[in-house]
């Protein structure tokens, strides 16, 4: 009898807060709608070549470099990257004109894509060119994701000879805008 | 990745328990009030708690958002809700969970019938979680850095600790005179799992300035450290077991050990004017079982690929440079964690003498009962950044001789209108209590920024009932 009473009282005590509590309807499944869409900007590649490194008798000459580029080895990055934009800017204060070819190479040194940028010879006036943004989406993005190396070919067109006293630099700056969607 | 977010969200959802037990404090008809003040004026011949049911408490608190803000079924896009919460939160906002479960407890008077010395003891299990809102990192995850050129993202925003432990304790309190009660409690902590990442610093910065060789100045300066104990083996691929039961076993039988102390005082300035103070959990745990410390320390300036058209001196791959500049290091050193120390104090004025029963005041001494008491309490707790402080006004009333009510009004970091209610009743030898705070929030618990409750059952034996 007594224990019955105790259990009734204790039930009442336990349930009391619930009796006068309410809750708005909550939908925890919304967690599945979570989609992060951060946009990052980052440097891609740069160089600054002084004229004195390009000593030349006046004929056309290519300079080649291949850099490792491991960003796409990361699976998380590869899987969640939905769009990329690359921006290029070249400043030339050397009295020769150049063509810069940027090659995206895969792990087997196969060329996936080549983008070419021309810059005229320096003639005493500011000589900075900002090239239109390269947008990588869909198939072009898939190719980009295979990139393991960046190949650069700087071709100096024929023109006045360069020696150790030649002035000026060829400056290349590039950045990437990276659109991610993480679910 | 997604799982991680989910866990994070669930923790947020659970969040919101400060450890302030303002309703229990100095509620001396409940033996468990000795756990918040070992010098509380509690007397008994002996008592024991009903195992598992003598003290069940949980506290959740989240200072900048509620479950409703995140999960309301109101048609607002979930991602917008997340953004709103991020923009309404600061890195001072915190999410706290504290849960305690008494496994068993008991106490007895030592010495003869006239003695006023008491022993109390028990074991309880505790879970503690505290995380500050990682505002800058949340912005980076949601927006990226594109629109934050020139902003320094602060890595110190990453600040959290979590622990599961069991506490074995023995306390002693003595009524030295009619005016003074002193008490202390020794504790052995056994920590089954601990994760601590509270001393991070560093930043992520993206800037742009003319005349530099790069499009952006990008610097990551990282001084990140996560210490864990008792968790390492669960992250291994070959682990095949049940995480909860393994943590439970470690918590009670194979934990990292520590020592702690509580101390408290009750002093009657006048017969009806009482002062109390206590300090709880001055203690440390030497984290020694299955310890692992992960660090990312270093500074890296990201410039991008840099062809030098020199076939002899090839530059290194920039991403390899990153790994070298900010390496992931794993250490296996023991470390010490300090328990969050709590400080309570109260002043209480009693009035309205009871004229009911006890026609004969057999003991002859001042055993006058007051029906009402009002007063104020203060609570403070150490935290990784700034201390948690709360103040409380309370009113206590004996409704019947064996039914006491306490109502509290508390201003704390989560709320400036936290009303708590507590009820302690004795039926025969059975003492039952139920304490609830933030009662106003119960009209819609999903919108509450903090909630706490505690209940329990004890058998208490007094002399007069012999």
Automatic annotation (TrEMBL), chain A:
Residues 1-27 form the signal peptide. Keywords: Signal. The keyword Signal applies. It comes from the Bacteria. This is DUF1439 domain-containing protein. It comes from Flavobacterium pectinovorum.
From TrEMBL, chain B:
Residues 38-437 form the DUF5723 domain. It comes from the Bacteria. This is DUF5723 domain-containing protein. InterPro entries: DUF5723 (IPR043781).
């Amino acid at each position: 009898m007594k224990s019955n009473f105790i259990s009734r009282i204790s039930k009442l005590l336990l349930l009391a807060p619930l009796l006068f509590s309410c809750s708005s309807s909550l939908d925890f499944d919304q967690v599945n709608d979570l989609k992060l869409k951060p946009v990052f900007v980052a440097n891609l590649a740069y160089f600054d070549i002084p004229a004195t490194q390009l000593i030349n008798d006046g004929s056309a000459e290519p300079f080649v470099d291949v850099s490792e580029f491991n960003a796409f080895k990361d699976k998380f990055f590869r899987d969640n990257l939905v769009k990329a934009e690359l921006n290029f800017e070249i400043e030339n204060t050397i009295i020769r004109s150049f063509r810069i070819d940027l090659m995206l190479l895969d792990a087997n040194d196969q060329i996936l894509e080549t983008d070419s940028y021309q810059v005229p010879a320096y003639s005493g006036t500011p000589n900075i060119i900002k090239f239109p943004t390269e947008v990588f989406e869909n198939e072009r993005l898939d190719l980009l994701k295979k990139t393991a190396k960046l190949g650069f070919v700087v071709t100096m067109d024929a023109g006045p000879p360069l020696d150790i006293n030649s002035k000026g630099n060829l400056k290349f700056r590039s950045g990437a805008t990276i659109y991610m969607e993480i679910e | 990745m997604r799982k991680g977010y989910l866990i994070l969200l669930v923790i947020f959802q659970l969040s919101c328990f400060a450890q302030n037990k303002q309703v229990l404090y100095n509620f001396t008809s409940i033996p468990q009030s000795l756990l918040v003040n070992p010098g509380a004026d509690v007397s008994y011949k002996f008592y024991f708690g009903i195992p598992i049911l003598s003290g069940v408490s949980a506290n959740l608190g989240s200072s900048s958002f509620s479950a409703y803000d995140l999960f309301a079924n109101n048609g607002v896009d979930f991602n917008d809700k997340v953004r709103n919460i991020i923009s309404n939160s600061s890195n001072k906002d915190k999410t706290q969970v504290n849960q305690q479960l008494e496994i068993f407890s008991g106490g007895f008077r030592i010495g003869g019938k006239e003695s006023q010395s008491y022993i109390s003891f028990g074991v309880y299990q505790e879970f503690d979680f505290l995380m500050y809102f990682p505002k800058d990192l949340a912005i980076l995850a949601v927006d990226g850095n594109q629109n934050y050129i020139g902003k320094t993202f602060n890595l110190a925003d990453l600040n959290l600790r979590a622990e599961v432990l069991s506490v074995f304790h023995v306390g002693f309190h003595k009524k030295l005179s009619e005016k003074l009660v002193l008490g202390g409690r020794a504790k052995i902590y056994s920590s089954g799992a601990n994760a601590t990442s509270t001393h991070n610093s560093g930043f992520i910065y993206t800037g742009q300035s003319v005349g530099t060789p790069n499009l952006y100045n990008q610097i990551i300066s990282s001084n990140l450290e996560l210490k864990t104990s008792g968790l390492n083996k669960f992250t291994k691929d070959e682990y095949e077991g049940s995480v909860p039961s393994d943590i439970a076993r470690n918590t009670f039988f194979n934990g990292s050990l520590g020592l702690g102390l509580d101390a408290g005082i009750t002093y009657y300035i006048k017969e009806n004017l009482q002062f109390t103070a206590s300090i709880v959990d001055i203690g440390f745990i030497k984290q020694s079982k299955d310890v692992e410390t992960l660090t990312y320390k270093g500074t890296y300036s990201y410039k991008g690929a840099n062809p030098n058209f020199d076939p002899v001196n090839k530059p290194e791959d920039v991403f390899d440079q990153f790994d070298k500049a900010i390496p992931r290091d794993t250490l296996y050193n023991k470390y010490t964690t300090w328990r969050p120390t709590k400080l309570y104090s109260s002043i209480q004025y009693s009035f309205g003498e009871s004229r009911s029963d006890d026609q004969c005041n057999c003991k002859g001494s001042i055993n006058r009962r007051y029906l009402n008491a009002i007063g104020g309490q203060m609570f403070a707790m150490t935290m990784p950044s700034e201390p948690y402080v709360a103040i409380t006004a309370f009113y206590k009333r004996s409704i019947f001789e064996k039914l006491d009510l306490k109502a509290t009004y508390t201003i704390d970091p989560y709320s400036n209108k936290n009303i708590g209610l507590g009820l302690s009743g004795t039926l025969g030898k059975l003492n039952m209590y139920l304490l609830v705070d933030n009662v106003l929030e119960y009209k819609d618990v999903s919108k509450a920024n903090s909630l706490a409750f505690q209940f329990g059952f004890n058998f208490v034996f007094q002399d007069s009932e012999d």
